[in-house]
Every structure is written in C-alpha cells, then in structure tokens.
Write a structure and sequence with these properties.
The chain is an alpha+beta fold. Helix content is about 70%, strand content about 15%. The longest helix is centred in the last third of the chain and has 19 residues.
Length: about 110
C-alpha cells in the first residue's frame, strides 16, 4: 500500500475534513472544537486529533496551568492540507443538486 493513500485517508476522513476545516478558522480547545465540529464523540475527536498531529497537520499546545489548557492549531502543512480539503468540501456543497439529479436519473433508469 502506497504511503500517500494512508495520508489521504486521514485528511479526507469524515472527521478529518471537519477538524481541518474548523482549525482553518482559528485555534480551538478540545471542547470548543467538539462543539464546532458537531456530532463527533470525544473518543473519535481525540483519535482524529492524534492522527492529524502524528502526520504533522495539527499542533497540540499543552500549557502547564491549572486547570490544564490544551489548544489545537494547524501547522503550515496542516494549513495547506486544510485549504485543499476545504476547497473540495465547498465544491461538493455547490454540486449537491447535480448529484441528486444524477442519482434520480440513475435510479429511474434502473426501475
């Protein structure tokens, strides 16, 4: 398996896209990011952030204060990836009508 496929899987996963898009706006704390993404479980968000951090897309800044404060931001590589993925997401939103029409035509031809 080509290494680029795994990277592509990480940035284009359901939660990867949404996390990258949210972090493109600004840095977030974990709970803020969970609300911004919406619908993601704590476990899945933590796993997605760890994966994106490991791949070099996300920087985790843990401040030694009480209570603990952890902020997540995009790295320069993450900004580049997020811009690419977000462009595809925006294009997809604009093409929903065309895709729905194609599906209806396909289903109608099969009926």
């Amino acid at each position: 398996m080509c290494p680029s496929r795994l990277i592509l899987e990480h940035v284009t996963s359901r939660w990867g896209v949404l996390v990258l898009a949210a972090l493109l706006e600004r840095s977030y704390r974990f709970s803020e990011l969970r609300r911004a993404v919406g619908g993601v479980s704590e476990k899945m968000l933590a796993q997605t952030l760890r994966t994106l951090e490991r791949d070099g897309f996300v920087h985790r800044d843990a401040k030694p204060v009480i209570p603990p404060r952890v902020d997540y931001t995009l790295t320069p590589l993450g900004i580049e990836a997020a811009e690419q993925v977000w462009a595809l997401a925006r294009w997809t939103e604009h093409q929903v009508g065309a895709v729905q029409a194609a599906r209806e035509a396909y289903d109608g031809a099969r009926a």
